[in-house]
Amino acid sequence: MNKAIVIGAGLAGCEAAWQLAQRGISVTLYEMKPQQYSPAHHSPNFAELVCSNSFRGDRLSNAVGLLKEEMRQFHSLILSVADACRVPAGGALAVDREGFSRQVTERIEHHPLITVVSKEMDEIPEAPVIIATGPLTSEKMAAAIQALPELETLNFYDAAAPVVTRESLDMSKVYRMSRYGRGEDYLNCPMDEAQYNAFVDALIAADTAEIHGFEEKKVFEGCMPIESMAKRGRMVPAFGPMKPVGLRQEGEKPPFAVVQLRQDDAADTLYNIVGFQTRLKFPEQKRVFGMIPGLEQAEFARYGVMHRNTFLASPGFLNNHFEMIHRPRTYFAGQMTGVEGYVESAASGLVAGVSLARDLLGLTPLTFPGFTALGAMGRYISTPNERFQPMNCAFGLIDPLPVEPGQKRIRNKVERYEAIAARALSHWTEHQEIVMEGMNCQ
User: Fold this and answer.
1) For residue 366, what are the domain limits?
2) Domain-located, residue 440
3) Which of 41, 66, 95, 278 could be stapled to 100 by a disulfide with Cβ–Cβ 3.0 to 4.6 Å?
4) What's the structural domain count of the chain?
5) DSSP SS3 for 26
6) How far apart are CA 203 and CA 245, in angstroms?
7) Is there a single domain that holds both residue 107 and residue 164?
8) Which of 249, 273, 307 is the last residue of a domain?
9) Do residues 323 and 230 both lie within one domain?
10) 255 CB contacts (<8 Å, ≥6 apart)?
11) Residue 136 clears pLDDT 90, i.e. is over it
């Protein structure tokens, strides 16, 4: 029987192990929890969501929405469980954080071809192997990775937003509404101009936790701390996570700024403060965020934290299937490869798992074209780039629509993106027989 090793039971590692096992490959999955935890992990369950509980936009006019739909074409474990654990979030796919991790763990542990070993790995085993230890890789494993030839690493900082209990909110100051009238899935805390200015002043003056080696220029833009935004300019938060556009209540004066809260669990007892990644000290978080209308007496189920992530300099080191160029059948997957986000991390595990499985089964390598989200993501991490940085899935990475002679470019952005998505999904539908080759979907 064909065998493979997967190291790390995060989103990427679980997806990779699942794709291998579903194609008849016997998988040994190594995970250091619960014997050892990273600074950001607390649960013994797999695929733990340490930042937001959102998998972001779910529409095909959104690049990550397309990526999710492509993953569903491959019977993705992560997307299947996420869909089952969905909680209200407007046009986004958000999940019950604990329920999601628990279900992923159960499905991995009960798969007959997956053996889970609780152990910290301190060396890279012989191929075939997929390394998905994440951006918070343990020091021993990081040293083993760093020792690989022709490799450089890039260190970045990531952050998680606070989570508060619903029962501690002052609902008389909060209203339900999703942006642009797309349901009532978010709680909104409106601010007038005076409240906003006082809040920004407090943010700028608040004490922050010192992090060894911290440099703001090394923070991934998608996880910029809210206090760092405020220091860039007074109105930066108001044009970012606190923008009021599309959140005006009927008959009410337009708010100057709005803080949104998104449901974090199926029981509707926890809410995270959207876009409020922070490195403020815990007492300062309670004091400053307590200035937000409705959060004056908020109880924090989890304070915001910040930690260092390590990313590979993947171009020239990995190919577009996430395989080491100079070490066949040794793959990397997840956020450490330079993809950014939950969905992208799981997708890299899917590509690595499918690619390794087909190699072991003697099947023709599967082509991931650049006009698909999966292919564009692999191309991004493998294309030479002196300024390579972590990247979310974006339509700018995907091949544009060709414009035939006599035709005009689709000017409407939504229509253009939907046409790009339709082209990608049509490709996978047309090649579904190859996509599912060797796979047991039962």
Assistant:
1) 3-152+313-435
2) no
3) 95
4) 2
5) strand
6) 22
7) no
8) 307
9) no
10) 190, 191, 192, 244, 247, 248
11) no
Is 263 inside a domain boundary? Answer: yes
Q: Which amino acid is at 258?
A: V
Strand partners for 27: 4, 114
The whole-number average pLDDT for the span 22-26 is 96
Res 440: pLDDT: 75
Q: What is the arithmetic mean of pLDDT over 157-165?
A: 83
Using DSSP, how many helices (H) and how many strands (E) does the chain show? 12, 16
C-beta of residue 223 within 8 angstroms of C-beta of residue 51: yes
Counted residue by residue, the chain has a size of 442
The DSSP result for 303-322, as a single string, is --EEEEEEEE--BTTB-TTS
Q: What is the mean pLDDT of residues 165-172?
A: 92
Q: Is there a cis peptide before residue 402, judged by omega within 30 degrees of 0?
A: no
**Inside any domain, residue 180:** yes
Give the global pTM. 0.79
Same domain, 142 and 164: no
Looking at per-residue pLDDT, the higher value among 224 and 354 belongs to 354
- The side-by-side arrangement of strands in the sheet containing 129-131 is 114-118, 26-31, 3-7, 129-131, 330-332
CB contact set of 251 (below 8 Å; sequence gap of 6+): none
pLDDT above 50 for 442: no
Q: Provide the percentage of residues in the chain whose pLDDT is more than 70.
A: 96
CA distances from 76 to 89, 168, 231, 347, 377 (A): 21, 37, 41, 8, 17
Nearby residues of 403 by Cβ (< 8 Å), 6 or more positions away? 409
Beta-carbon contacts of 184 under 8 Å, excluding residues fewer than 6 positions away, are 176, 177, 178
> What is the distance between the alpha carbons of residues 8 and 129, in angstroms, rounded to a whole number?
11
- Spatial separation of the C-alpha atoms in residues 183 and 99, rounded to whole Å: 23
